[in-house]
Specification:
Blueprint: E1 8-11, H1 25-37, E2 42-45, H2 57-71, E3 77-80, H3 86-99, E4 103-106, H4 116-128, E5 134-139, H5 147-156, E6 160-166, H6 170-180, E7 187-190, H7 197-202, E8 207-208, H8 215-227, H9 230-250, H10 252-261, H11 280-292
Helix pairs in contact: 1-2, 2-3, 4-5, 5-6, 8-9, 9-10, 9-11
Length: 301
């Protein structure tokens, strides 16, 4: 199989649950097909927007395998392997590689705050255990690595070649890594629902990893930026920003409500703990925000 390019919109399908919070396997296939059909350049799962933290290892295996099967080598699949310990992450990563993942992505284990040494050693151990690329997920909720630490990891840890950067001042961190990491860094993607995507593109980042619910719109924006239509890409992005701002308040609940409204999944259920249900005024606002960009939607039931 030819090596795939890690560039563009690598979308994260939220994990669908039934109203009793059990895994919705039919909905899972639907959202994975939606992600591919919508023009995403890659799939990333199960990670934060997939509610990886409330999934059993068996459920993670089901989701990972279905993503690889449904993609069917059409677009790359990056499997999330953040675990509760280094050994747990390595075991998840080995299983991901065995079933055909193109890459893995991980935050360091952070049930207890790790030290800088533990973070560096985690990525060295993880990278050494694999023969496929590893994305560092640099997130403030885990261990926000500075650019020097990221560069040290990339230069010393085998296969740790890519970065998903979403800490505070992440654009500056990305530029410092791109300018000083040399060949050790093969690419950096942003997060935060694509909120800063045009600015990230201008910094030389290779893509973004947003939730999949609007990946058709984000893929078109990225394609415009890539083709040199910077004004067109920025104009579409400006129109999407109010919805992105809304999502930044509600997160998972907003992602899933959009997917229900788009006919992709049947239930917007988020698995406990930590649910925060939107009220009727939130839902009215969400409907208005979606109506305002209806002409940008490329995928329809």
């Amino acid at each position: 199989m030819a090596k795939k390019e890690f560039r563009g919109i690598f979308a994260i399908p939220p994990t669908p649950f039934k109203s009793d919070e059990s895994l919705d396997k039919k909905g899972l296939d639907s959202i994975l097909n939606f992600t591919v059909e919508s023009g995403a350049h890659g799939i990333v799962t199960p990670v934060m927007a997939s509610e990886y933290h409330v999934l059993s290892d068996d459920e993670r295996d089901i989701i990972s395998k279905r993503a690889i099967d449904i993609s069917n080598e059409r677009i790359p699949v990056v499997i999330g392997v953040t675990g509760i310990s280094t050994n747990h992450s390595i075991n998840l990563a080995l299983r991901a590689e065995q079933i055909g993942a193109d890459a893995v992505i991980a935050m360091p284990p952070h049930g207890r705050p790790p030290s800088r040494y533990e973070v560096i050693k985690f990525f060295e151990d993880l990278g050494r255990s694999l023969s496929i690329p590893v994305f560092i997920q640099n997130h403030s909720l885990a261990y926000g690595m500075d650019s020097k630490t990221i560069i040290e990891v990339m230069k010393n840890a085998p296969n740790v070649d890519y970065l998903k950067e979403e800490t505070f001042y992440g654009g500056q961190v990305s530029t410092e890594v791109l300018e000083n990491g040399g060949n050790a860094c093969k690419g950096i993607m942003g997060g935060n629902s694509g909120r800063w995507m045009p600015a990230e593109f201008n910094r030389g980042q290779c893509g973004n990893m947003p939730s999949a619910h609007m990946c058709d719109v984000l893929a078109v924006i990225w394609n415009k930026l890539e083709s040199g239509d910077l004004e067109g890409g920025r104009n579409d992005h400006k129109r999407l920003l109010p919805l992105i701002s809304f999502e930044n308040i509600y997160g998972l609940e907003a992602f899933k409500e959009v997917l229900v409204r788009r006919g992709v999944i049947e239930s917007a259920t988020v698995r406990s703990p930590g649910k925060h249900t939107m009220d009727r005024y939130d839902l009215i606002e969400l409907d208005k925000l979606m109506s305002d960009i209806s002409d940008l939607l490329r995928w329809h039931v």
